[in-house]
Amino acid sequence: MTTSLGGSEMARTIRADVTARAAVLTQRGITPTLAVVTATDDESTAWYVRSIAGSASRTGIHCDTVALSPDAPTDTIHAALVELSNNPGVHGIILQTPLPDGTDLSVLRDAIAPEKDVDGANPVSLGRLMAGQPAFAPATAQAVIDLVEYHDIELKGRTAAVVGRSLVVGTPVAHMLVQRNATVTVCHRHTPDLAGTTRHADIVVVAVGVPGLISQEHIAQGSTVIDVGTTATDDGRLLGDVDADALIGHAGGLTPVPGGVGPVTTALLLANTVTAAERANIQDQFLTAKLIDSPVPA
Ligand SMILES: NC(=O)C1=CN([C@@H]2O[C@H](COP(=O)(O)OP(=O)(O)OC[C@H]3O[C@@H](n4cnc5c(N)ncnc54)[C@H](OP(=O)(O)O)[C@@H]3O)[C@@H](O)[C@H]2O)C=CC1
Ligand SMILES: Nc1nc(=O)c2c([nH]1)NC[C@@H]1CN(c3ccc(C(=O)N[C@@H](CCC(=O)O)C(=O)O)cc3)C=[N+]21
Fold it and tell me: Which residues are listed for NADP(+) binding in this entry (predicted)?
């Protein structure tokens, strides 16, 4: 039997907490605000931006979308990020990838103030994450880990394969799995025998963007499969990287697309935004008391 590892219920719980915390801030005259910067006509980004805007409005977070042209030069995107980093009314910033061909992403990562870096894109955030220090993790990577833990899937002492090595998903997920005592193999375009590698893993995380890449031959019977892929089709559907039909009855657990990692990602991005807004107003004694009572969010 294959368990469906859904994320919608978990996302609802996170959103309820975000709503309560956002209400406290709003009562004190602070509107938690997330800026979403795009420079792409990529359809899966459009899905994410719609999901963020919808969830933000339901939780009491103000969402500001800065939609730049898909051929915007690095300088233009950089200037937008610097302005948002310096704007005290903005608490969180997410720069959507992909970006126009030729964009210098490393310059842009540096331009996101670490205290507003709610998708963990700045090397300071990534470095702190890897050093085990408090930092905003990329929301998707955190969503993968939280979803696995929510469904009581043991990581300690188990083997994992991560397919994809972007800084948004694959690389941070791999590190976070190792931090939780899994033994991890990272796969990418140059991996010689993908199926032979993933077939040895108890847990397979796939973040590639190629629908149907992972089929039954890639997965050992009973393993857990986390499908991060979201490819939008022309007829308005969202496809994962896993051939779900081929895995039903074969995998032990599988995240659905939609309804798996995606909703948790969106909810955690908003949670990070509220945390950033709380920290930015740490001088507010009421909020300080609340923060001291609660553990530092990872
Ligand atoms: N559900 C959610 O919350 C989220 C979903 N996504 C989705 O996840 C997917 C991946 O996103 P992202 O990491 O940003 O994408 P990138 O394009 O940045 O990275 C894709 C990775 O997949 C690898 N890859 C590509 N083709 C193959 C192949 N045939 N075999 C093995 N590896 C391959 C690439 O390898 P190489 O490095 O060698 O080029 C690269 O490391 C997309 O569909 C995206 O929309 C992303 C973020 C959040
Ligand atoms: N810097 C950056 N970080 C990202 O995390 C990032 C990005 N860029 N670029 C685009 C991809 C794509 N992505 C999605 C996240 C959630 C859903 C999502 O919530 N999907 C819902 C469906 C949406 C809905 O129902 O409204 C689901 O899977 O159920 C989709 C896509 C994040 N990405």
Answer: 164-166, 230
120 Cβ contact list (under 8 Å, min separation 6): 126, 129, 135, 136, 137, 138, 139, 141, 172
- For residue 254, the cross-strand partners are 4, 225
Rounded CA gap, 47 and 96, in Å? Answer: 11
For 237, the token pair is: 């559907």
User: Is 57 part of any known ligand binding site?
Assistant: no
263 CA to middle of ligand 2, Å?
8
**pTM given for the model:** 0.96
Ligand number nearest to the C-alpha of 45: 2
Confidence of residue 289 (pLDDT cuts 50, 70, 90): low
Q: Give dist(CA 169, CA 258) in Å, integer.
A: 17
> What distance in angstroms lies between residue 197's CA and the mean position of ligand 1's atoms?
17
CA of 149 to the centre of ligand 1 (A): 23
Averaged pLDDT, 7-30: 97
**Could you give all domains of the chain from N- to C-terminal order, each with its CATH number?**
139-261 (3.40.50.720)
Q: What 3-state DSSP class applies to 24?
A: helix
168 lines ligand 1 (CB under 6 A): yes
Q: Can you tell me which atom of ligand 2 is nearest the CA of 98?
A: 9
- Interface predicted TM-score (ipTM) of this complex, two decimals: 0.98
Residue 214 carries which DSSP code?
A: B
User: Which H/E stretch holds residue 234?
Assistant: none
Strands 238-239 and 231-232: antiparallel
Helix, strand, coil % over all residues of the chain, rounded to 5: 45, 15, 40
Nearest CA to ligand 2 atom 26: 51
What are the φ/ψ torsions at residue 161 (nearest 5 degrees)? -120, 135
238, 259 Cβ separation under 8 angstroms = no
How far away, in angstroms, is 262 Cα from ligand 2 center?
Answer: 5
In sequence order, the β-bridge partners of residue 214 are 242
Tokens 């980004």 correspond to 45
